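Forum: Protein Structure Q&A
Topic: Joint prediction for protein chains with partners

I've read a bunch of threads here and the consensus seems to be that you should model interacting components together rather than docking separate models afterwards. I'd like to see that in practice. Below is the full input, 874 residues plus whatever partners are listed. Could one of the regulars post the assembled result?
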Amino acid sequence: PLEMAKITQKNFYRQLKQTGNAYAWKNKLETYNPNYYKWTQWFFLKLFKAGLAYQKEAPANFCPSCKTVLADEQVIQGKCERCGAEIEIKFLKQWFFKITQYAPRLLRNLEKLDWSLKVKIAQKNWIGKSEGAEIDFRLFLPQVKRFVILHGKGASPKDNFYLWLKSELKKAGFEVEVPKLPNSFEPNDVKQTEYVLKNCNLDENTIVLGHSFGGIVALRLLEKGIKLKGLILVATPRTDKFLDHKKRPSVSTALKKGFNFKIIKENCRNILLLYDLKDDVVPLSDGESFAKELSAQLIKAIGQKPHFRFKKEPEVLNICLPSIKIFTTRIDTIFGATFLVLSPFYELIRKNDLAILPEAKEYIKETLKKTKKEIKDEKTGVFSGLYAINPATNKKIPIWISDYVLASYGTGAIMAVPAHDQRDFEFAKKYNLPILQVIQVPDLNNEKNILDKAYEGEGILINSAQFNGLKSQKAKEKILNWLKEKGVAQKAVSYHLRDWLISRQRYWGPPIPIIYCDKCGTVPVPEKDLPIKLPYIKNFKPLGTGKSPLANYPKFYKTKCPICKGLARRETDVLDTFLDSAWYFLRYPSANNKNLPWDKKITKKWLPVDMYIGGAEHSVLHLMYARFISMVLYDLGFVDFEEPFKKFRAHGLLISQGAKMSKSKGNVVNPDEYIKKYGADTLRMYLMFLGPFEQGGDFRDEGIVGIWRFLNRVWQLVQEIKIQDQKLKNKNSKLDKLMHQTIKKVTEDIENLQYNTAISQLMIYQNTLQENLKILSLKHIKTLLLLLAPFAPHISEELYQVLKAKAQNQKSKQFKSIFEQKWPKYDSKLIREDAFKLVIQINGKTRDVIEAKTGLSETEAKELALKSPKIKKW
RNA sequence: GCCCGGGUGGCGGAAUUGGCAUACGCGCAAGACUUAAAAUCUUGUGCCAUCUCGAUGGCUUGAGGGUUCGAGUCCCUCCCCGGGCACCA
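Posted by a regular:
Agreed with the consensus. Here's the joint model:
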């Protein structure tokens, strides 16, 4: 790629120069240059340190042909933005930028921007804000009747979260016991176990929750042969390694006996472990070792207080009464929610070993083999084996798993309301799930409102208990408040925008500056070590193993940990090259600065960009990324503007033979051929003359000779003209008027990107000059050349030199360039017409047109009109 | 399905606020130059009628309706083309 880039860029630069584009060539840059991508990597580090770059395991768009993952924006209609292959969903660990954190601002700022409406709307839709609610649907726990909570060392039933948890569980309809265990300060697990056996009601409908030392007691109960429905260990020690173990001889003694895990597992099949990441008493590793021995699910969380010692610990309640959070914009239809649907990638299913059916597990595996298109084409799903409780109706509803629910939107779970959502309707029909109508269909006389498809509109509520008769809008508000009071719902906003996936398993891109060390974890490369150069390797083809080709080069990835200096491994994925282009405008003015990404003073002078012109295809790609990066840099104090481009205009796309130009279609129009035949000026001017700049169209060369002829006539004009005596000056007011009108029109049209009409005005002007060849003065022709210069720079410059030589009596001399002359100004007094055409219409039809002098009064104009002989018969 | 553009001569396209629709260019036709062709220049060129043959009348901006003295332009309904997004709950 490096060699190829150098060849293609050479040709690219040649063509840009040849077409007469006046760029500041001193300030050019190439993003593959280590001097440039050094700073791209530097951004990554800045974002990483600001908590805006993170790694996560998530379903990602994977292109099987490019063999890399892609960002959401880079999937166009289910296909790869680069190669067009059908995208698959793979569950992989990748790096992301938290662009979603900026979603509200990216949306809000749009209003202030002077951008093509098209692009603003595209961005708005892509960010896709929806307002609604998040609602908790509690899981239905079959056969569970009773909770027994065992407190820890030195505690009593009144301490920590016990009282609160007891009341919450009671509210949910369970029996709860919290025994006061004997000798709490110097507890003996044998004695406490005996106490529980004697005093508590334990059976196969009971879940025991043990907190800290209470967990050891719980395990002993199972060892004794007690069978339980479930066991929850909250921060229970496995080893006596915790900080002040010397002060806890009782715990050490209890642990020394060890556990009979085999019997424990036999007596209880549902075991969940909850450990606090910031625990200052029991290390997380205890939870990990328990999880291994008990083959149980370990949930890592952060307690309100370390070791879960606060009065309210929602994480603990969540374990006892797991619930599924859904997002909806139609809370008014909640009484019609007859089932829940989870995405196959829903966190709970993946991470918690809920009692889901084997066929559901199989389904999740199968989903990973499908392409996006296959998923879309047919709705499939499977019953999970679980049930939830609809918080509005308190009814038990089944939980299904289906890939028609996206993991990456909302919470990854939905309440299905088949009567009022077409997708849910189709799903319910296919799998024979109940459909309950809760909104009246207007204009339907039939009282039963039988539905053969979902009614998705709003209306009056039915089958919704106390909310019957309300209109959707009002009902949304009331139901939300009702569920809020119950503590199971809250207002929520969801965005369509996803975090920006920036890892690529390609070769060509800046390596992600991260080092993995067994001891120190994920370590950012120190800034002084940048750039991490992309090595020159022979086999750069993608591997298809989910890893970058760099993963085959130990020379690249073997490194030392910057912290402990031990052996470590570099990240081998590279950064999305869209990140390179997300900040290049900042680099242009300071392109030659070796020590900084940009010079503060120069940046202040030149940026933000006044006017930016590009393709609309970058609406949600480059333009969104660049805005995000600018906002981050602003927040971090590196630049003093949030928005990089004040004004943006999208040029139209020129297509060829009815399709986008592409090498594979063989319909590429090569400018070189036209330059060879007609010259660069003709080509560039023809492109401008073709049609409205912002519209684009099919490229045909049928009219190109028109421009060629026009430029030839201008050429002839300058050759033929004889510079007159100054006497003739100002004699021809008609020509002067046209000249000033032309200056005005061309100036304004250029500013509005209406090049086609500017050129047509130049043609009119040129034609008139030709007709009045004998009475032309220098200014007329000079103005023509000045106005023509931006369109046809080469010929204008040459003719300008000829003209100057003529004007100064043929002395051959090098004159200043036309591009150093001032742009002509028009005199608005001279533009005003002194005559106008008085159009006489009768019943909207033109019956006569009379030449009239300006400044007539209404009566005078009427009189004049009535004199027209033609109107008499009308 | 939703959201943007757009639909005007044979073609690319013009048309400030509603006020001569078709500017400018291509193409085409006739003429000039030429032995001839190309190039160049000049003139003409929306469609349909009518006749006394250079005028007169009518029609025309995707379709239909409306507002107005007057609509390519404003309002309503619909059709077609291009682009974007799309199980987004």
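The mean pLDDT of chain A is 88.
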